[in-house]
Structure formats: C-alpha cells, structure tokens
Fold Carboxypeptidase-like regulatory domain-containing protein.
Amino acid sequence: MKKLVITSIVILVSIGSLYSQGKLINGKIIAENLENLPFASILINDTIEVGKSDVNGYFQINIPALEQK
C-alpha cells in the first residue's frame, strides 16, 4: 500500500511538471534618468504587444512552451 501511494505521488508530480514548461520573464523598465517607466508597452518586432509594465515599472511575460524560438 505504501509503494502504491509513493508511486501515485511521483506520477502526479511528473505529469504536473510536463505542463509547466513555459518561460517566465520578469523585470523592471527604467528611463535614461533611472526613473521608473509606468505603463510602458512591451512589443515584439515593433508590432505585437506582449505586456505592459505596472505603475512601478515592473513587468512579467509568460512564454508558452509551444512557441518557437
């Protein structure tokens, strides 16, 4: 019975980690004068908006694992 419980836990943790293979990028946007840049848009190739910074300049972008690099 104990082996069955341990095996079940290992399998569940393994399956859960397969779905969390994405990348998380976070940071802070600052201006040239070292002040926070609130509500700045983050763009890919100058066309696709992927995120915005908050009131303090911090941002967080989640990149799914299925995206090609």
About this structure: The longest strand covers residues 23-28. The chain is about 25% helix and 30% strand. The radius of gyration is 19 Å. The mean pLDDT is 76.
